[in-house]
Amino acid sequence: MLQFMVEQLNEQLSLQGTIVDVILRSDQSLVEEEEIREVILTFTEAEDEGKPVATIHLFELAEENSCEVEVEVEYPGAQSAEQTSHLWEQAKRLVPEISLTEKRRFLEPKKPAQETRTLDFHFVVEQPLTEEELQQFTSTLARFSADLGKLVRMA
Q1: CA-CA distance, 1 to 7, in Å (whole number)?
Q2: Fewer CB atoms < 10 Å away: N or C end of the chain?
Q3: Do 66 and 127 touch, CB atoms closer than 8 A?
């Protein structure tokens, strides 16, 4: 399922920007006899410094032939509270269940060394088995890709 998802996302996201990195990660639990497989895609509109970058985590769900998609879009740099609020409002119009996290890193009091805002959301897709399911799956990924393309263009 992970390979199928990467192929489909590569096709859909190439219309919106560039996948700049693909990582396959496998973790074996020492306590339980369980292996977690994950693919991490890094996506951006342009590879310019300071542009928003999306990280897409694909987790294969073992109990069913499905995949969880977790997305984080990071916006670097300082912004006012009003700008951040506007960014979140725009994002919520695209993806109603999206959340916002702000992070400030200080090396000295009252002098932030790094500021970022991260928008994140997730959803689950199932392996299509019929032609109708394939059409719905393709439609879901096309809508996701278009929305993600808009999210990485927001500033």
Answers
A1: 10
A2: C
A3: yes
